[in-house]
Structure formats: C-alpha cells, structure tokens
Specification:
- With 143 residues, the protein is an all-alpha fold.
- The protein is built from 6 helices and no strands.
- It is elongated, with a radius of gyration of 22 Å.
Length: 143
C-alpha cells in the first residue's frame, strides 16, 4: 500500500480481462473437441471423446502453463499499471505539450484521439479491443 492506495482494483480489472480470454480459449477447445467427435463420427459421448483426447495429449501440462501465465499476467499488469499511475509523483508530466505537437505534425494538424474517436465511438468496438487486450497479454507470455 502506497499513500492509502491498494492494488485490489487493478487486480480485479486485469483478472476480469484474463478470465474472459481464458474462457474464450476453453470454449474454442471445447468446440474443437466437438468437431473432432463429429469428424470421426464417434458414437462416444462428448465427455468420453474429451477423455480419449486427454489420454493422447499432455492435457495437464497444456492446462497448467496457460493458467500460470494468466495469473502471472494479472500480477504483472496490475503492478505495471499501479506504478505507471504513480510515476507522476516522481516526475511530473513535462512532455505532454511536445508529444501533442508531434501528433499534430504527424497527423496533419489533428490529434491522435481526434483521429481515432470515430472508430472507437462504439461500445462494441471498445469491448472487442478490451477482449483482444486480454489475448495480447497471454500471447506475450508465450501461451
């Protein structure tokens, strides 16, 4: 805890992002197993087909590594966000005006937020980007 702040709100945010990404990966894996059952026209139940598939692959290793990576990602991103927000206590913003001028020069007199606002105005687009951010974190950890 630093000056009354805690990490819990940040942990909650990143845990939700990673949980959504992990849930989507699990759903994709379940869909793959269902397609495998349909492709082989097996009469076995879905649970039996999944068990057979697990017997022939290192399912435990393939499950534990992503879960450890997800947990590590939550902790890393939480600490990163927390200290990124606190850095202004040590070094106040002094480059904002310079970066704004650079943006205007690169973007023909407009600011980056002004250029991107029409594309990001929709809640669904913003939600999609937020979900993709969770996958990006897992991808960076080599999952």
């Amino acid at each position: 805890m630093v000056i009354g702040d805690t990490l819990m709100p940040s942990i909650s945010v990143y845990a939700k992002r990673i949980n959504l990404a992990v849930a989507l990966v699990v759903l994709a894996a379940a869909a793959a197993v269902m397609l495998m059952v349909l492709r082989t026209r097996s009469q076995a139940s879905l649970v039996q087909a999944f068990a057979d598939h697990a017997m022939h692959t290192d399912l435990a290793g393939r499950t534990i590594r992503p879960l450890l990576a997800a947990g590590t990602s939550v902790l890393f991103m939480t600490c990163f966000l927390y200290w990124k927000m606190k850095i202004t206590w040590l070094v106040p913003f002094s480059w904002d005006e310079t970066f704004a001028r650079m943006d205007a020069w690169l973007l023909g007199g407009r600011q980056a937020w002004d250029v991107m606002a029409p594309a990001l105005a929709s809640k669904s687009v913003t939600g999609l980007l937020d979900t993709a951010y969770g996958f990006w974190g897992l991808a960076c950890l080599g999952v």
